[in-house]
Design goal:
Structural class: alpha/beta
Largest sheet: 7 strands, mixed
CATH topology of the largest domain: Aspartate Aminotransferase, domain 2
Number of helices: 16
CATH architecture of the largest domain: 3-Layer(aba) Sandwich
CATH class of the largest domain: Alpha Beta
Bound molecules: 4'-deoxy-4'-aminopyridoxal-5'-phosphate
Number of domains: 2
Strand order of the largest sheet: 2-10-9-8-7-3-4
Distance between the termini: 51 Å
Radius of gyration: 21 Å
Strand content: 5-15%
Shape: globular
């Protein structure tokens, strides 16, 4: 019965990882997938996660019963507090909801599905940054919300196109949905400054747009949890209703465990309850209830002051290694006198750098140097280390000159 089903294209980023794995060249480098690597190029289980893991193994009270539909209660509350801050007025007012989801992807989906069913502005479209994480379009279109783009990356300055962004926000129909990256924008690594966030919030309020933050890198970007949450906290302090999808994949290194949360800042406690009840109804029909393992680890760490401190140290280790590698790559390119300006590599933040390399140059990086990166010229800084940074810089130098 399915002979007419057309084959779908493979996911670009997972296909890239597979190609890297199949490559037998000794100098191959994986700058594709957004997962942290040590200086030896290995995945890293955070020491604090190991500790929490051991505590769980020794806890005879833990079982494998179902979690509630909305997830592990103390995890949900801790996640909301992490993004909004311990002194959040919205939390004190009792108008913050939280739903445990299948990591960041599931949280974006859960929020999008709720909007598709209950957002009251007829025909509202969702605006995503140009460029953005490819799944944003797929998720919103998947739930039936049309997607448009707002300018974000300025290829000339290799920085933020604030004018274009604000311009599109101004001209978008009132009550549109805007998907914003609070920190460590994927794929560009370019974030608005606090002042620019205030301007963005001004327009969002003036136009009555709905704010949907997708936060996949809190603490991972700068090593500082509060700094990375500035935008979300600023919006919430101004009384803006919003959703925040939170992923614990990167900042806890829990990629496969799918620990995530959707934090909801509503106008009143009653509205918060209404939203949560609808999401519970939908969640029951999609996943029934979320998985426990990852959320238990995050919960143990976030609710224990000592483990929390250790987590922040682990975060700094990851963030600082990446910042060091930005500097090292920049220094190598400067030494080589590679044509063009490269300071964006050090100015950008988080897991990724948008190099400005063209698709044709990316192909040479792959074919000649066995260095794997996405076609849009994005590199995962986590794939760079002291052993391969010279090699990567030489390859970039070569492709830029030819
Ligand atoms: N949003 C953005 C912008 C991301 O970069 C990612 C991770 N690549 C995610 C969401 C979600 O990741 P996960 O589902 O693994 O939490």
């Amino acid at each position: 019965v399915f002979e007419k089903v057309p084959a779908a294209p493979a996911d670009a980023i997972f296909a890239l990882t597979a190609a890297y794995k199949a490559d037998t060249h000794p100098n191959k480098v994986d700058l594709g997938i957004g997962a942290y690597r040590t200086n030896e190029g290995k995945p890293w289980v955070l020491p604090v996660v190991k500790k929490a893991d051991r505590a769980m193994v020794n806890d005879d009270n833990l079982d494998h019963e179902y979690l509630p539909i909305l997830g592990l209660m103390p995890f949900r509350m801790a996640a909301a507090k992490l993004i909004l801050g311990a002194n959040s007025n919205a939390i004190a007012d009792g108008r913050v909801g939280a739903v445990q989801c299948i990591s960041g992807t599931g949280a974006v989906f859960t929020g999008a599905q709720f909007l598709a069913r209950h957002y009251p502005v007829k025909g509202a479209e969702c605006y995503i940054s140009k460029p953005t994480w490819a799944n944003h379009r797929a998720i919103f279109e998947g739930v039936g919300i049309p997607v448009r783009e707002y300018p974000y990356w300025d290829p000339v300055t290799k920085g933020l196109d604030l004018k274009g962004l604000l311009g599109t926000m101004q001209t978008a129909p009132a009550g549109s949905i805007f998907l914003l990256h609070p920190c460590a924008h994927n794929p560009t690594g370019v974030d608005p400054t606090p002042e620019q966030w205030k301007q963005i919030a001004d327009v969002m309020v003036a136009k009555g747009h709905f704010t949907f933050f997708d936060c996949a890198y809190q603490g991972f970007a700068s090593g500082n949890l509060a700094r990375d949450a500035f935008s979300v906290r600023h919006f919430a302090e101004r009384g803006i209703e919003l959703f925040v999808a939170q992923s614990f994949s990167k900042n806890f290194g829990l990629y496969s465990e799918r620990a995530g949360n959707l934090t909801i800042v509503a106008r009143t406690p009653q509205i918060k309850d209404q939203i949560e009840s609808q999401i519970a109804k939908s969640q029951r029909a999609v996943i029934s209830n979320p998985p426990a393992y990852g959320s238990r680890i995050v919960n143990l760490v976030l609710n224990d002051p000592q483990l929390n401190r250790e987590w922040e140290e682990n975060l700094s280790t990851m963030a600082n290694r990446i910042i060091d590698m930005r500097k090292a790559l920049f220094d190598e390119l400067t030494k080589l006198g590679t044509p063009g300006k490269w300071d964006h590599i050090v100015n950008q933040i988080g897991m990724f750098s948008f190099t400005g390399l063209t698709t044709a140059q990316v192909k040479v990086m792959k074919d000649k140097y066995h260095i794997y990166l996405t076609d849009n010229g994005r590199i995962s800084m986590a794939g760079i280390n002291t052993n391969n940074v010279k090699y990567v810089a030489q390859a970039i130098d070569d492709v830029v000159r030819h």
